[in-house]
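worker-03 picked up job from queue 'complexes'. Input manifest follows; two sequence lines, order preserved.
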Amino acid sequence: MNSHRYCVVMCGGVGSRFWPFSRNDKPKQFLDFFGTGKSLLQLTVERILPVVGIENVILVTNRQYRDIIIEQLPGVKESNILLEPARRNTAPCICWAAHHILALDPEASIVTLPSDHLVLKEDAFRQAISEGLDFVENGPRLLTLGIQPTNPNTGYGYIQQGSGVEGWPGIRKVKTFTEKPNLEMAKMFLDSGEFFWNSGIFIWTAKTILNAFGKYCPEIGNIFDAPDATYSAPGEESFINEAFPGSPSISIDYAIMEKADNVFVKTVDLGWSDLGTWNALYETSPQDEQGNASQNCKVIAPDCSGSMFAVGGDKVIVAAGLKDFIVADNGNALLICPRADEQKIRQIVNEVKTTFGENFV
Amino acid sequence: MNSHRYCVVMCGGVGSRFWPFSRNDKPKQFLDFFGTGKSLLQLTVERILPVVGIENVILVTNRQYRDIIIEQLPGVKESNILLEPARRNTAPCICWAAHHILALDPEASIVTLPSDHLVLKEDAFRQAISEGLDFVENGPRLLTLGIQPTNPNTGYGYIQQGSGVEGWPGIRKVKTFTEKPNLEMAKMFLDSGEFFWNSGIFIWTAKTILNAFGKYCPEIGNIFDAPDATYSAPGEESFINEAFPGSPSISIDYAIMEKADNVFVKTVDLGWSDLGTWNALYETSPQDEQGNASQNCKVIAPDCSGSMFAVGGDKVIVAAGLKDFIVADNGNALLICPRADEQKIRQIVNEVKTTFGENFV
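worker-03 finished. Artifact:
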């Protein structure tokens, strides 16, 4: 195993669209989503270990999840857990992690992973990561994995591929990034064959991404531009606690990927879902003849079709007469919602919080 | 208070139509249905106490509910709790209780009450019971309370009233009993003004009802026709454990009321519901502008109408897009069902039991 290779796992998100399973105090990456006995975070770390040794896995999360990470990943050193003092989206998180790793190893290359995605084809995943690391170690390149789209999903970002790269089959220049398109545009993207889903999996060297911050996003780059011997050193925590909250809250796509001129995409088929929504989970779940899917639970569903049932714990759901609904029951909250309305869930969660208090979200 | 007056409270039912609130190990009569801090059984006993002293209140229930009754009614002597060794509907229960009471007091008159009904007009209720007891103490009469119907409910039995009784205003001979009619017939009943809902509240003396068993239902009467000094005596329990399971399982209506020629009805307005079904509860619950009712719970219900929400414990329900549904969540079971389909609940409960086990019903 190449000891200059690192993995950054981003695991500080709140996942409110998966309420009431995903909760403020235990978001979806910490849940055993598929009843396998392992959380999405644990699956994510296990998946990368053949490529990156556990000592080179860096977790970036919000302070409040420190204990749960130590509990779920006892093999990870505490010094490998970076605790954000505030929520500032992905760009500052990635910038900090790159500085932290660069201080450990000036030759470091890094794969950055979300902690809450589904990957069915693990071998293909690891092979793509390895090849991607080879690619970025050979020049100042920013690489993202692009997923072959299977439907005109309007919940994903899209990447348009440009010209190929000699000697690197499957890797192409990126022409454009497009945020969540409307359905008509998503259909055009799908038909064109030029567009891929943005997986949120990024590969680069520590040096290359920090150069990119300096060039394309100095408002973040400058914040993390600390004196030598700050990172991976005793002063790091207090420096971060002081500096981090002053960062703008923006995504890495917006801060760097949409602006840089050295961005590439490696197109892959990973059996991937970002599990971003109940519908995404519904699509990846086995369905019965009526198109009902259930997540690890006991269901009797006469006259139901196209519906998704999920329950926390050993519980029976009896549902009659639901067409295309989500039923999600967990702890002190129950959600019953047409699948078509799931984009309202985030707003509903806010209403629950305002009306009934923090304890229910 | 007339010390010859007794009350029999029948509290051995399983109330499966109220699943998942009503459970085998704690049926609806033992639940604090309205969040008042008292169970329906406790409310039932309190309601009758100004008419019948606590020492004359006899509870008849299934063996398995002994402990819960002792817990809920600490003022009741254990010797006043009659424990059925098997479920045999209301006729054997009433026959046993009458023998038990007759042995205590040959002059006893008895009002028999279900333990799981709602009565809003408690004064009217007590006055009707008192007048009814006066009536049956003046001759060999079987009296039932008939409720002025407010809608063509197809879930109730109906009583057709006949001629009046001189000197007893509000009491009339019964012409016919009719089991749950279809909607068309229920509408005719309502329009005629001659029909009343069968409340299941019966009034008679111990002697009169036992004579009626001998005459109209000897197959039960004979089973309970024990030697002197059996009832309300040390040998009662073993006699009952031996004899009771051999009784046919039939209702008092079928065994006696539909056959006897000395049956009368006292018509009353009690603010009564048998709370037999979720719809019955829905009808008696306050509704918001969209016709949604909630039982003691936290609900956010965009685009919902005509629906009933009930939850056990401190829990939030978020429901969107439900029209005329029942949502009932309690313990390890969740029911979501169109209100129009509630007659299927009993059958669904059986399916739950068969498929997932006793633990869920």
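worker-03 released lock.
The two ends of chain B are 42 Å apart (CA to CA).
Chain B touches chain A through 33 residues (CB under 8 Å).
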